[in-house]
């Protein structure tokens, strides 16, 4: 069992479950650096982030609603897409409302408990999405490489098992990081150099040993990012090989079009998240992490419904049906 070393002296005793102490005083809140201090830029960013949030929320909830109400979308692929859309709606809601509030506030304060809560959901929802994307890659492999056995390979029990395992692994990741974070000690600045509470910038503030946190971050980077990414690559190597064996150009195009949207989302999400979390906090870069964080916490959830609705005929048909224009689909 890994234990974090707590320095003694001016820090005083730290009882289990109590907030960490700074200079003998319990730490009750942190100060977030935010995105900018320029007043003119704050208004511009507020407008942009508000529009992005509305589009992301409406788009993802809309996709989920379409899948629920349209029986033609009650297939394995759309089962995972509905789960992914709900996750994206929750994911973007974990950070954007706070960012919007802080763009208008004089001080960007966040309580110790709220910081840990936000960090927990970040490390719960993001890995869950990684695993769902992996399950969707397996679904595409089964549909294209094993079409005669597709309904057996992706039956209701398989789908439920994949979704449950994804949730449990993500929950394990989040609990591990959050519990280890509660054992950190803070005795200096309380400024988190980010626009939301995340583990790497929080580790920079700790004056106690962060080795357990570093090891946990490094280990789970493989479990929730690199291993799923490798499985996605293996799935698509087989998919591409199967597509190339199709003789007609029309058949190859149709098969590839069923994978294009998912592959696009995988590339955006995995690249940004892996680059953000695979490196230790000693190499943490504020500018780099802010750019990647905006991409995978805000932009990616917004792009998900847009990409799937533009690249998918079944989703377009469901939209036209809702609008009463099914004949034009």
In short:
The protein has 11 helices and 5 strands. The protein is mostly helical and 329 residues long. A hairpin with a 2-residue loop joins strand 1 and strand 2 (25-26).
The class by helix and strand makeup works out as mainly alpha
What's the order of the H and E elements? EEEHHHEHHHEHHHHH
Number of helices: 11
Cα-to-Cα separation, first versus last residue? 59 Å
Helix content: 55-70%
How do the strands of the widest beta sheet line up side by side?
4-3-5
Multimeric organization: single chain
Low-confidence parts? 1-18
Q: Tell me, briefly, the overall form.
A: globular
User: What is the strand content?
Assistant: under 5%
Describe the fold and architecture.
The radius of gyration is 22 Å and the shape is globular. The N terminus is likely disordered. It is built from eleven helices and five strands. The chain is mainly alpha-helical. Helix 1 runs antiparallel to helix 2, helix 4 packs parallel to helix 8 and helix 6 runs antiparallel to helix 8. Strand 1 and strand 2 form a beta hairpin.
Please write out the topology.
Layout: E1 21-22, E2 25-26, E3 29-32, H1 39-69, H2 76-93, H3 96-104, E4 109-111, H4 112-145, H5 150-153, H6 156-182, E5 191-192, H7 199-205, H8 211-244, H9 249-277, H10 286-310, H11 313-322
Parallel strand pairs: 3-5
Antiparallel strand pairs: 1-2, 3-4
Helix pairs in contact: 1-2, 1-3, 1-10, 2-4, 2-10, 4-6, 4-8, 4-9, 6-8, 8-9, 9-10
């Amino acid at each position: 069992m890994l234990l974090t070393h707590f320095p003694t002296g001016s820090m005083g005793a730290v009882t289990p479950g109590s907030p960490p102490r700074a200079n003998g005083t319990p730490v009750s809140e942190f100060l977030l650096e935010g995105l900018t201090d320029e007043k003119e830029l704050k208004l511009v960013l507020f407008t942009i982030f508000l529009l992005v949030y509305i589009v992301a929320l409406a788009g993802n909830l809309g996709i989920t609603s379409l899948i629920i109400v349209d029986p033609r979308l009650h297939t394995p692929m759309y089962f995972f897409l509905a789960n992914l859309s709900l996750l994206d709606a929750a994911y973007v809601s974990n950070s954007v409302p706070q960012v919007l509030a802080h763009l208008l506030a004089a001080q960007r304060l966040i309580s110790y408990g709220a910081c840990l809560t936000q960090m927990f959901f970040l490390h719960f929802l993001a890995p869950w999405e990684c695993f769902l994307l992996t399950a969707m890659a397996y679904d595409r492999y089964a549909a294209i490489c094993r079409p005669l056995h597709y309904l057996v390979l992706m039956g209701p029990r398989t789908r439920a098992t994949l979704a449950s395992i994804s949730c449990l692994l993500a929950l394990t990741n989040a609990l591990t990081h959050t519990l280890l974070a509660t054992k950190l000690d803070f005795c200096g600045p309380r400024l988190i150099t980010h626009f939301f509470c995340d583990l790497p910038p929080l580790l920079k503030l700790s004056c106690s040993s962060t080795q357990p946190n570093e090891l946990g971050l490094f280990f789970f980077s493989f479990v929730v990012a690199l291993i799923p990414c490798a499985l996605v690559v293996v799935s698509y190597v087989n998919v591409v090989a199967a597509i190339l064996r199709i003789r007609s150009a029309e058949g190859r195009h149709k098969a590839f079009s069923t994978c294009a949207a998912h592959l696009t989302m995988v590339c955006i999400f995995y690249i940004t998240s892996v680059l953000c979390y695979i490196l230790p906090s000693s190499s943490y870069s504020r500018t780099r992490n802010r750019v990647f964080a905006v991409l995978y916490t805000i932009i990616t959830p917004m792009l998900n419904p847009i990409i799937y609705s533009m690249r998918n005929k079944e989703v377009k048909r469901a939209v036209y049906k809702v609008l009463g224009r099914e004949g034009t689909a």
